[in-house]
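Subject: design request, 143 residues
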């Protein structure tokens, strides 16, 4: 008699299970939201009274980053970014950067001794991106 009771309970339990989702977006969809070229416009500085202020970057010193749909960060010329992160935190979601296609060689990276920052913290709102990388000041980018 107990076995007959267990069968409906197991069926109810199986049918009530839902797929757990950490967020509404898959990692590829999250990278797709930031994919494309971004141009630096401001850098965050600390003032004497410990308040952060955004200073404009001179036009000659601006930087361009290109994010691919798989999270790989490229320079403006399409070469891989030296010392790029292995993971990113985009709007609070931790994502692994996994190249889907082979990356070309960047000869400049051979000359650098990277003390890598394994994770970049990225905040995105509309067409503005703020990137924080370990001990470097945060940078503001626009599309």
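Subject: RE: design request

Done. Sequence follows.
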């Amino acid at each position: 008699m107990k076995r007959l009771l267990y069968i409906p309970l197991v069926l109810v339990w199986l049918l009530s299970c839902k797929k757990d989702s950490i967020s509404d977006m898959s990692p590829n969809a999250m990278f797709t939201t930031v994919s494309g070229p971004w141009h630096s416009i401001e850098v965050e500085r600390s003032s004497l009274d410990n308040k952060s202020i955004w200073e404009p970057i001179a036009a000659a010193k601006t930087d361009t980053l290109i994010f691919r749909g798989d999270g790989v960060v490229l320079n403006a010329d399409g070469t891989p970014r030296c010392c790029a992160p292995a993971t990113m935190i985009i709007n609070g979601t931790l994502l692994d950067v996994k190249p889907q296609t082979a990356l070309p060689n960047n000869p400049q990276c051979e000359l650098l001794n990277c003390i890598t920052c394994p994770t970049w913290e990225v905040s995105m709102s509309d067409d503005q991106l703020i990137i924080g990388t370990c001990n470097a000041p945060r940078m503001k980018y626009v599309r």
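Confidence is low (pLDDT under 50) at residues 20-24.
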